[in-house]
């Protein structure tokens, strides 16, 4: 649904150049919820504004639903009309809502339809349908000042859906909300994704957002995508930084003659007492240094850091036992990567 190739954005100010995007290649499949995560300054917001050409890239291409948006626009009324038509199929949800305070909730939702020259009766009907869809049918005549933060964001989502978009872009849409409201908005986005077949791209700095609703994710640093893939691929890939961030486990070896192992549980293995089986089968004392577990995509997933007595060479058989149980096993500080590891798409890889 969305592909960017070699996407670069350079800002020039006061004789200086700042590279916000540095050759970004992104691949978002139709109908998935895709999370783009990174710290402030990583280039996330610039990326999402380039996806609908609110910012025009310095170089590279953006293709949405088979149409190269970077080939549109330019000079002339016809060129501008083509870009506006393409943008009408891309909805945008903002962090700070961007509602017009002088308009009612219904009028805010109708605004994109006014711009598209839709008749008054059709605008009203569509707006009321969308407000019902986001759970605000009773707030049509209210004004933004009378709404909570979560309600304002629901209005923003309804407005973004007014043009029947194929793609919904969300720029930190939950970062200004409390945890409970965040959960309700994320659930709404997932429901809309499933009901309407929407492709959703979420810009966020919160790992919980990725864990809660994302099918795939990309990690950005310094204007570059350093990792991307499905969440399942990321969790099953040795050395994945995103996997470590999604399920952080701490703890260092207590002595030099100890082996520290990170074990990732998913699927049926997440509910089996594999560590207990390991201890009984090989009569080995196991120390648990840290663990994290959560539900991702409706399935339990977790990581655990354990410590085994002896050096790596002394623990080849126990580690092999864990891998035979279908677990992803990473030996901390060991460069050995199992041949069966799932592929992780690194920046620059084909």
Content-based structural category: alpha/beta
Output mean pLDDT: 86
Largest sheet: 7 strands, mixed
**End-to-end separation:** 18 Å
Rounded to the nearest angstrom, the radius of gyration is: 24 Å
Helix content range = 25-40%
Beta-strand share of residues: 25-35%
Number of strands: 15
Question: Given the structure, what is the number of helices?
Answer: 11
Which residues sit in consecutive blocks of at least 5 with pLDDT less than 50? 335-346
- List the strand order in the largest sheet: 6-7-8-3-9-10-15
Gross geometry: elongated
Order of helix and strand elements from N to C terminus: EEEHEEHEHHHEHEHEEHHEHEEHEE
Report on this model:
The protein has 350 residues and is of the alpha/beta class. It contains 11 helices and 15 strands. It has helices at 44-51, 77-87, 105-115, 120-133, 149-160, 179-196, 207-213, 231-235, 241-246, 274-282, 316-324, and strands at 2-13, 16-28, 33-37, 59-64, 67-68, 90-93, 167-171, 199-204, 216-221, 224-230, 258-266, 287-296, 299-309, 328-331, 345-346. It has a 7-stranded mixed beta sheet, with helices on both faces. The chain has a 4-stranded antiparallel beta sheet with strand order 2-1-4-5, with helices on one face. The radius of gyration is 24 Å and the shape is elongated. The chain starts with a strand and ends with a strand. The model is unreliable at 335-346 (pLDDT under 50).
């Amino acid at each position: 649904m969305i592909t960017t190739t070699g996407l670069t954005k350079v800002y020039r100010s006061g004789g200086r150049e700042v590279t916000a995007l540095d050759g970004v290649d992104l691949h978002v499949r139709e109908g998935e919820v895709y999370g783009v995560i990174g710290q402030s300054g990583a280039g996330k917001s610039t990326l999402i504004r380039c996806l609908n050409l609110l910012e025009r890239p310095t170089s590279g291409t953006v293709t949405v639903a088979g149409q190269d948006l970077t080939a549109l626009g330019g000079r002339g009324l016809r060129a501008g009309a083509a870009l506006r038509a393409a943008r009408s199929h891309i909805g945008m949800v903002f962090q700070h809502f961007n509602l017009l305070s002088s308009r009612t909730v219904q009028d805010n939702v109708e605004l994109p339809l006014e711009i598209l020259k839709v008749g008054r009766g059709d605008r009203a009907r569509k707006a009321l349908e969308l407000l019902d869809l986001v759970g605000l049918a009773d707030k049509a005549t209210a004004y933004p000042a009378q709404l909570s933060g979560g309600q304002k964001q629901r209005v923003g989502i309804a407005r973004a859906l007014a043009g029947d978009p194929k793609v919904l872009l969300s720029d930190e849409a939950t970062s200004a909300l409390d945890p409970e409201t965040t959960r309700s908005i994320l659930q709404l986005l997932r429901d809309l994704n499933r009901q309407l077949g929407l492709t959703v791209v979420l810009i966020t700095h919160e790992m919980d957002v990725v864990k809660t609703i994302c099918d795939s994710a990309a990690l950005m640093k310094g204007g570059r995508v350093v990792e991307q893939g499905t969440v399942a691929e990321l969790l099953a890939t040795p050395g994945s930084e995103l996997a470590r961030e999604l399920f952080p486990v701490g703890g260092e070896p207590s002595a030099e003659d100890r082996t520290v192992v990170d074990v990732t549980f998913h699927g049926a293995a997440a509910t089996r007492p594999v560590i207990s089986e390991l201890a009984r089968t090989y009569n080995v004392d196991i120390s648990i240094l840290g663990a994290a577990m959560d539900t991702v995509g409706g399935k339990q997933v977790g990581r655990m850091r354990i410590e085994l007595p002896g050096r790596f060479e002394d623990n080849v058989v126990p580690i092999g036992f864990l891998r035979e149980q279908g677990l992803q096993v990473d030996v901390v500080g060991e460069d050995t990567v199992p041949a069966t590891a799932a592929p992780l798409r690194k920046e620059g890889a084909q």
